[in-house]
Recover the amino acids of this structure.
C-alpha cells in the first residue's frame, strides 16, 4: 500500500459537526482572542449592547415611566464565498497521513480502518484551513491581487477607516523599537490614547492587546530584565502569557509576511467582542469538503467551499499604535543648487498622506521652497531647488495627523 484512494465528502450536518465545528468552537477558537461567529443566521450581524443614562426613578405610585431602550450598535459582516484547495503527490500524501497515524499509541498499523484514515486526512486539511483563515482575518485584502485576498481582514478595515478620518478611533505612530523597554512604552501609549469608553470596559475583563511578534518578544525581554526572583524564575521556565496592567497581551503571529500596503508592526488595544470572524457552512448552497484521489495525475486532492468574513464594530473601542513606514531616502542626485529626490516606502503606504521635501544649508537653514513629492506606487518623487544646499529635509505626514521629520 503506497497510496490512499478512498474518496470522502462532507456536506450538510457532517460538514458542520465533523469538519468545521472543532476549529470554530472550543479551545482553538478561544485562542484567537476574538468573537468567532459560526453558522449565525445570514447576513451575519456583529452587535454590541450598551445602556447609557440613569434608569432609576423616584417611586411615585401608579403609572409607567419607562426609560429609554438600550443602545444597540450593529454592523453586518460582509461574507464572501471562498474555497481552499490542496494537492499532494500520492507518495507524499500517504507519508503525511501515516505520520499522523503512527503518532498515536492506540493504532495497530497492521489493521487500519477507514475511520482512522479519514480522521487523519481531515485533521491535515482542517489545520491548513484554520491557519489560512487566521492569517486572512488579519491581513486579508480583496483588492491586493496576491496573497490573502479572499476577504478583507481587520487591518484593511482599520487602515481604511484611519485614512478616511473615522471619528472616535484613537491611533498613534511610533519609531522602530531600539530597546526592550520601548515595547512597554508603546503599550502605555495605546492605553493613554484610548477613549473613555474603551478604558471603562477594562472592568468587564474583555480588553486585550493584539500585537505583532516583534513587540511581544521585546516586551517579554523587558520583563526578563526586571531584577526580581519571580522574573528570574519566569526567564527559565517561560511564561504562559503576558499582561500589561492586567490586560492580556496576545501575539497574533503573522510570521515573516511583509505586505507593502499594511503595517508590519503594531499594537491594537480593543475589546475582544469588538472583533469578529464569521464563518458559515449552512446558509449557502454549494458548501462542502471533498477529499479524493486523481489517478490521471497520481495526486491526492482536497477542496473546501464555504463563506467567511471579518470586521470590527465600534471605532471608539479601538486604540492602535503603528510603527512608522520603513523608508529609504535617495538624494544622490542633489547638488548645491538642487536636484531629484526619491523616497521608497516598504510598508504601510496607505497610512501616508504626503511627503514633502526641501533643501537645507549646512547650518540647517532653509535653502529653497518646500515641494510636495508625487506618489507613484511605492515611490515618492520630486525635484528641489535652492542655493548652498547641503542637506535635504523630508517631512512625512500620516493620515492620522502625525508628522515626522528626517534630515538626510
Amino acid at each position: 500500500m503506497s497510496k490512499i484512494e478512498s474518496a470522502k465528502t462532507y456536506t450538510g450536518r457532517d460538514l458542520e459537526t465533523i469538519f468545521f465545528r472543532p476549529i470554530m468552537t472550543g479551545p482553538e477558537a478561544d485562542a484567537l482572542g476574538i468573537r468567532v461567529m459560526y453558522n449565525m443566521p445570514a447576513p451575519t450581524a456583529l452587535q454590541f449592547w450598551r445602556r447609557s443614562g440613569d434608569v432609576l426613578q423616584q417611586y411615585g405610585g401608579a403609572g409607567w415611566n419607562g426609560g429609554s431602550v438600550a443602545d444597540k450598535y450593529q454592523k453586518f459582516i460582509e461574507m464572501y464565498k471562498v474555497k481552499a484547495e490542496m494537492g499532494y503527490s500520492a507518495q507524499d500524501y500517504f507519508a503525511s497521513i501515516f505520520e499522523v497515524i503512527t503518532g498515536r499509541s492506540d493504532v495497530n498499523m497492521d489493521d487500519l480502518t477507514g475511520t482512522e484514515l479519514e480522521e487523519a486526512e481531515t485533521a491535515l486539511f482542517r489545520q491548513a484551513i484554520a491557519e489560512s483563515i487566521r492569517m486572512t482575518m488579519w491581513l486579508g485584502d480583496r483588492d491586493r491581487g496576491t496573497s490573502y485576498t479572499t476577504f478583507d481582514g481587520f487591518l484593511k478595515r482599520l487602515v481604511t477607516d484611519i485614512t478616511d478620518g473615522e471619528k472616535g478611533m484613537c491611533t498613534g505612530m511610533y519609531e522602530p523599537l531600539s530597546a526592550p523597554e520601548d515595547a512597554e512604552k508603546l503599550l502605555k501609549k495605546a492605553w493613554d490614547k484610548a477613549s473613555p469608553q474603551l478604558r471603562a470596559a477594562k472592568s468587564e475583563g474583555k480588553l486585550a492587546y493584539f500585537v505583532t511578534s516583534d513587540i511581544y518578544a521585546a516586551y517579554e525581554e523587558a520583563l526578563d530584565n526586571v531584577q526580581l526572583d519571580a522574573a528570574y524564575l519566569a526567564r527559565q521556565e517561560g511564561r504562559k502569557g503576558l499582561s500589561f496592567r492586567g490586560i492580556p497581551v496576545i501575539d497574533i503571529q503573522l510570521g515573516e509576511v511583509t505586505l507593502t500596503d499594511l503595517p508590519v508592526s503594531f499594537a491594537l488595544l480593543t475589546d475582544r467582542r469588538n472583533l469578529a470572524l464569521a464563518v458559515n457552512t449552512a446558509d449557502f448552497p454549494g458548501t462542502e469538503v471533498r477529499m479524493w484521489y486523481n489517478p490521471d495525475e497520481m495526486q491526492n486532492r482536497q477542496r473546501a467551499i464555504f463563506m467567511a468574513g471579518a470586521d470590527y464594530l465600534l471605532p471608539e473601542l479601538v486604540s492602535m499604535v503603528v510603527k512608522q513606514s520603513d523608508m529609504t531616502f535617495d538624494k544622490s542626485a542633489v547638488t548645491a543648487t538642487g536636484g531629484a529626490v526619491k523616497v521608497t516606502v516598504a510598508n504601510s503606504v496607505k497610512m501616508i498622506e504626503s511627503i514633502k521635501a526641501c533643501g537645507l544649508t549646512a547650518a540647517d537653514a532653509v535653502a529653497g521652497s518646500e515641494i510636495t513629492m508625487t506618489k507613484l506606487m511605492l515611490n515618492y518623487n520630486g525635484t528641489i531647488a535652492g542655493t548652498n544646499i547641503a542637506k535635504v529635509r523630508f517631512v512625512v505626514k500620516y493620515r492620522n495627523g502625525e508628522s515626522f521629520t528626517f534630515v538626510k
DSSP finds nine helices and 22 strands in the chain. The first strand starts at residue 8 and ends at 10.
